[in-house]
Amino acid sequence: MDDVQIRTTLRNYLISEVGLEGSLDDHESIFVDGLLDSMDFVGLICFIEEEFGFELSALEVAVEDVDTVASMARMIATRH
Fold this sequence. Notes:
The protein is mostly helical.
């Protein structure tokens, strides 16, 4: 899966499953700005693990890793 596909997959999940409405920019802050709560964070981690085939510990994921679609895509690319 290339970077564009990863970003699209993440964006679709955040819009459909978390309920973020409208278009979600790749660099828009979603965690720091409070668009994700702690339960959404856990769901996001579970989704990433299932969708991209690797395990993440909440302790090893920094807020910076999940704050934007772009930062999540970078984190995923380093794990693939």
